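Today's session is about reading a structure prediction critically. Students often jump straight to the picture, but the first step is always the sequence itself: look for stretches that repeat, for charged clusters, for runs of hydrophobic residues. Only then move on to the predicted structure, which in these notes is written as discrete structure tokens rather than atom positions. Here is the chain we will use throughout the hour.
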Amino acid sequence: MPEARSVNLHVDGGARGNPGPGAAGVVLTDQAGAVLHRAGYYLGRTTNNMAEYEALIRGLEAARACGASTVNVYSDSELLVRQMNGEYRVKSAHLQPLHQRALRLCRQFESCVVKHVRRDRNVGADRLVNRALDGRCDVGQVTPLPADRPAAREPKMN
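Below is the predicted structure for this chain, in token form.
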């Protein structure tokens, strides 16, 4: 039986104007800190909360593509974390389909834990959101590697 592959996933989303131009940021690393996937996705007009969910969904899809079996998700969105952990209901009709999609993706892993972190512990994903918003395009995408290929160390981002 192959060894379980555990990954860390940092996600962030934001919209300027809320609603307004929005983006999602994703940084996926293995347990040693090697980057498996890093990207900022320009989303067009959206809300902050929708952008947070898009970041989570895209990050979970990248984790699945990398062959992850367990995922530790880190987000600075208290709403997203509490909704994903069942502490808050998802009342907003426009968030319900995104929430359901994220839950379905989480169930595809042996373990998927969503944790809240302070903003200063999520700067990589936040930087990608801002770069995508500033350029109004996707940025920094690294194609997920197959589970049996090693990843390079994350370079410093300016």
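Discussion point for the tutorial: The longest helix spans residues 48-65.
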